[in-house]
Amino acid sequence: MAGASIASRTARPDRFRGWAGQIAEGLFAVLFPSDCRICGAHLVNISRLPLCRVCLDAMHPISGGLCTVCGERLFSPYAFAEPGGESRCGMCQRMEPAFARAAAYGSYEGGLRELIHLLKYNGVRPAADVLGRMLAEAITSLEPRFPASSVAVIPVPLYRGKRRQRGFNQADLIARAAIKVRGIESGRLHLCDRVLERKRETASQIGLTSHQRRENLRGAFHVVQPEAVRGLEVLVVDDVYTTGATVSECARVLRRAGATKVWVATVARTLKLSAQQVEIQGDPDNGEKLVDALSAPLARAAGG
Fold it and tell me: Which domains does the chain have, with CATH numbers?
């Protein structure tokens, strides 16, 4: 999914900005001074999103070798190559996920992480539009594998208490923005925001083992409208894929309710392996040792 950033591809070229627009932006900067919420630079453009162009342009798609199932970074695209050109990480080789495939736009770090936090914790709703364009790209990478029939788009729900406190579900806002960008509401993908329910609040996943994460989420989700997914393929969408425990539990209950296959698309993903590629040299046995050394901590860290 490598390429130019979302902002640079959607920005209007400067040559189309007339003198009237430049004067208006100048007055805006004087009358309503504001700083970029990421880098602190003074903002001179009229925008509902308090981010500068430099920070937006720095939010690039994930590149490099990735697991074709969960999207985790691979230290070598050939380490776990399978027939058909697919490459699986150690976790996906050892345990088949509940979902068919997961895709994310960018890495959950730096400016992208701050942009997501602006929406979730600061209530800057215009951020959902930019995040929605990113989610649309993640969906695009999965769409060739979708069936010709309808696919239900289901945002990961919040517990009603948290949603009431926050005032919105960020996954729902981002999903709606993505559908608006793609113009696919009347096409193969349709939003089903009342199908999946979060029955209880769950403790933080930080510091929990794989087993503890799964148990923490066990029974947290419930399909309230099974007829909406029965016999259909489903696309679960969220803002961040961290350990995979949340989307895996959602996929499990949706499949139990009758969904034939579950796909996952998120704006960002936590990449557990370094972006730097590791070179395997010398004795071929060193490759197996390196795989074991890298897979062991992943087995402890992944949430299924």
Answer: 19-56 (no CATH), 66-269 (3.40.50)
Tokens read off for 75: 């230290």
Report the C-alpha gap between 154 and 250 in whole angstroms.
Answer: 10
Who's near 3: CB < 8 A, 6+ residues apart?
9, 60, 61
Specify the residue for token string 């902002």: 7
CB atoms near residue 119 (< 10 Å):
24
Burial string for 40-60 (b: 16+ CB within 10 Å, else e) reads eeebbeeeebbbbbebbbbbb
| C-beta separation of 100 from 259 below 8 A | no
Instruction: Give the Cα separation of 179 and 198 in Å (integer).
Output: 23
Q: For 148-203, how does the pLDDT look when each residue is reduced to its tens digit (9 = 90+)?
A: 888 999 999 999 999 999 999 999 999 999 998 876 544 788 999 999 999 998 88
